[in-house]
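Predict the 3D structure for this chain.
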Amino acid sequence: MTAYLRSFWQEEEGQDLIEYSLLITFIAIACAAMLGAGRPAVNSIWIGANNQLTQANVVSGAGAS
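Done. Predicted structure below.
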């Protein structure tokens, strides 16, 4: 029984899979954090672009009914 446990403890067959899984999990968490932190910046860019397009539409007279 002790030999089986010792060989099981020293076996490294599934170690790569666990390491890659942890790495992918860390990358996913980091991406989620960056997306959450960048949300206000992206929102302000869209609002600014919308305001400029609205002003250009009004100036060109296309907005008049």
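The chain has a mean pLDDT of 85.
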